[in-house]
Amino acid sequence: MKVYIRSIINHLIPIPCLLCGVTTSFECRICSPCQKNLPSFKVACQTCGLPVYSANTYRCGHCIAKPTTINRTVCGFSYQFPVDKLILQFKYHQQLGIGETLSQLLAEKIQQQYLDDALPEQIIPVPMHPKRLASRGFNQAALISKQLSKQLSIPINTQSCQRVVETKPQEGLNANQRCKNLQHAFTRTNTVSPHIAIVDDVITTGATINALVETLSSADVTRIDVWSLARTPAN
After folding, report:
1. InterPro entries from the xrefs (predicted)?
2. Residue 175: pLDDT above 70?
3. Band of pLDDT at residue 183, cut at 50, 70 and 90
């Protein structure tokens, strides 16, 4: 019945692809040919999400040399054109449908990556400071998490931590400045499940994720995974 209803909607209300304008399905606003051309890393380090040279390489040299408590990172795309433009429209121009579409595609990749692995028990969106939340009107990580929760049937936990320091925007800061900017930015406020996934929109240097991982790490958390729409290529 649902398939029949969707086919009627597609017939009556054609949905143009966000990238090429060709009519696409009601479920996803990026057509299949455009999806295939979206930038992504063919093989990536399971810890940081950056590209590696061989499918048999599970950890990059940096992550081997400096181990973290992050078990697995899954990024939907490489933060390059047109993904970067789509995410900017989502974050700064209230194009929430774009975020929903990219989150759907990320969920599909997560399902592929976890075929032989257990999915996390909770999703934790990177929290936003209340002042910035009031200014923007929404937390993009929370909206991404909502879509992932719907598609993967994993509950969202928004009570486990808070952003208690209103840091200046990370854009334009180098790796060291980003880390310093995020010192004591988060605090843990509640219990979490043993296996969690932290969700953000874009991973650049990993400073935000690492700060939150440090805040959430404890004896009762046995595994932390990281999911994001996109990963910025290394310089």
Report:
1. ComF/GntX_DNA_util-trans, PRTase-like, PRTase_dom
2. no
3. confident
Is 183 in the same domain as 130?
Answer: yes
pLDDT of residue 56: 84
How many structural domains are present in the chain? 2
Q: Do 93 and 159 lie in a common domain?
A: yes
Helix (H) or strand (E) holding 214: helix 207-216
Kindly tell me if the per-residue pLDDT of 179 is higher than 80. no
Task: Say how far apart CA 149 and CA 156 lie, in whole Å.
Answer: 7
Helices (H), ranges, 60-201: 61-65, 83-92, 96-113, 130-136, 140-152, 175-181
Query: pTM for this structure?
Result: 0.90
Q: Are 140 and 91 a contacting pair, CB within 8 Å?
A: yes
Query: Measured at the alpha carbon of residue 81, what is the angle toward residues 180 and 22, in degrees to the nearest 5?
Result: 140
Which of 234, 180, 224, 220 minimizes the C-alpha distance to 199?
A: 224
Host domain of residue 14: 1-37
